[in-house]
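Two records follow; treat each independently.
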Amino acid sequence: MKLPENKRNVPSVLTCMDGTEVTDWEIWVTKRRPELLELFKREEYGRLPDMSDVKLQIRVADSRQSDDILEGRAVRKTVEVLAVRKGIHFSFCFVVFIPADAVKPVPAFVTVCNRGIKDSDPARHFLSPFYPVETIVSRGYACAAFRTQEISPDYEEGFTTGFSRLFPEFVTDRPDDAWGAITVWSWAASRIMDYFETEPLIDEKRVALVGHSRGGKTALWGAAQDERFAMAVSSCAGNSGDALSRGAKGERLKDILTRFPYWFCKNYQKYIDKEETLPFDQHMLLGLIAPRLVYTSSKTFDKWADPEGQFESLVQADPVYRLFGIEGLETDRKPLPEQPLYQGRIGHHYKTGNHDMDEYDWNCYLNYADIHL
């Protein structure tokens, strides 16, 4: 297999830690993939605690269809997830919209909403392009969104609230590889998938996990861990998401770990100003999703997210898809703005604009899903 030019001197995605070269998909699945997944858990995002004594209950709290819900075009269901451990309770809700005319299971999008209620309003009083339910449903897809703040606060609070309150013993005795907020948010996304597996009008084999910025990092990490997701969609994820850490031309590890250390495990701190010593880089995160679908997007004015590093990450992940005998990225040349790449199992577009996710982005995601999902 001809490997792409290694412009940023990243470690090879197809070379195991013991030097074994990955020459077919079986070696990838049995050896390389598991060790990379372990590396990301131990060194970057952190691992969940033992969940064996956590009891989960998922129930539909409300289900209705009326003219005031997308003019009758959707069934809206409110679902509650309850987790109980040693008498401590934690719960969160999410809302699902399903096309009212669905006569067979439809594909779906799960959105990681790292913004306020205006960008995920279940009543649809606020029509935000960040989460255009009306467009998604009109295209024949179901959708659900959860707000990250309800799962784990997006500020440094010592892992004492939200999901983390289930494990008070970790407050004073916290291992260096213990979970960060991104791992907890990805856990929540998987609970929505649990529900989808029980919902007869949703095809759980055709579900995409979507996120923007920190939500994009979550979508990639969530899909890497949970192979039930058929597709990961990442908008402007940047550093520690889809952009390479080596040779970063925008945000660096020092920047992100100074502002948002709680997104990651403590072990990640040791690579500040030492990105070249990382035993992995973010192209390997994208490779963990293979042979499933992954779609990323970047913006022309979002230099902090390093659009060049984001695209180069896709180029370096492509060889994993080739192991499976399928096309990953259709070209190794970064596209011009508003020229989406739809053909391979790795999709991408580069849009004129700032750090955001809008209806143009969503229409591209939907176009790509129409072809592949």
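The next record belongs to a different protein.
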Amino acid sequence: MPGFEVLYQAAALCLMYPDDDFRTRLPLLREAAPQLREFADHAALTPPRELAAHYVEVFEAGQDRSLYLSVWREAAPAPSEELYRAHGLETTGEEPPDFLPAVLEFASRTGNAGLLAEHRDGLDQLRSKLDDFGTPYATVLDAVCATLPPVATGH
């Protein structure tokens, strides 16, 4: 799954709380990751307070659209701080290591999308919930999931 590092970095930014720094990066994000242009255009046209309120409504209002991989109850273990350290990365402590933007950042910096692939089923569930909710954030998950192998369905 090489070559998707820029997309993963851009998706991580899209899935973080939309602060002023996010807004200043939108033009670069839009050009660097064409797969995310629909979301970037939406974010650029939405007033900052409205975008921030929408983020809270989508991701912080309930567990059914959580950005924490451990919520999705899969067989795959959640990433740990030790895993990040083993690859020369440090977590900030602001969010646990299973926070999806942190996992995307990990994949971007290491070129290893294994964690994303291991949690593909949960990512698909989240993508479906976002799509059902009717939020443009669903397009970010669409772009990430399009880079991953399908979920194995063997019994």
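Discussion point: DSSP finds nine helices and no strands in the chain. How would you locate this feature using only the token line?
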